[in-house]
Design brief:
This protein is α/β, with parallel strands linked by helices. Helices cover 44% and strands 19% of the residues. The protein has five helices and five strands. It has a five-stranded parallel sheet, sandwiched between helices. Helix 2 runs parallel beside helix 3. The longest helix is centred in the first third of the chain and has 13 residues. The protein is globular.
C-alpha cells in the first residue's frame, strides 16, 4: 500500500523539517511548500491525502490558500489542518470558515500533529 501523502505548507524550514520527520517516522510521505503559490502548483500536480497549513505565509495567507483550495481547485474533500501561532477564538473561527477541518495552535506536540492527521484521513 502506498504511504499517505501530507502536503506541509509553512515558510519556516524548521517547522517543515520537524513535521516532515514526525510524519515520516509514522509512515507518511511528506511534501513541502513554503508559500501559497508553490502549494497550489503542488496541488494541481498531485492531490495529497491531507494538507497542513500555517496561517502566516509570505504573500497570500494560509487562510487565502484554504479558500483557493476549496473554491478554485474544487478540493472540497481534501482534509486541511491549520497549525498556527494565532490562537484567539476569532483566529480559529476564521480558519474553520476558510475551510480548515482541524485547527491546532503552535507549539504543537507530535501526538497532537499525528492525531490531527490520523483524524483528518479517517484513521483515528
Amino acid at each position: 500500500m502506498e504511504p499517505r501523502t501530507v502536503l506541509i505548507v509553512d515558510d519556516e524550514m524548521s517547522n517543515t523539517q520537524l513535521f516532515g520527520m514526525m510524519l515520516e517516522l509514522e509512515g507518511y510521505r511528506p511534501l513541502v511548500a513554503t508559500d501559497a503559490p508553490t502549494a497550489l502548483e503542488a496541488l494541481r500536480q498531485q492531490t495529497p491525502d491531507v494538507m497542513i497549513v500555517d496561517v502566516m505565509l509570505p504573500g497570500a495567507s494560509g487562510l487565502d490558500l484554504c479558500r483557493q483550495v476549496r473554491t478554485e481547485l474544487g478540493l472540497a474533500d481534501l482534509p486541511i489542518v491549520i497549525v498556527s501561532a494565532k490562537s484567539q477564538l476569532s483566529d480559529v473561527q476564521a480558519g474553520v470558515a476558510a475551510g480548515a477541518n482541524i485547527y491546532l495552535t503552535k507549539p504543537v506536540t507530535k501526538a497532537e500533529l499525528l492525531g490531527a492527521v490520523r483524524q483528518a484521513v479517517g484513521e483515528g
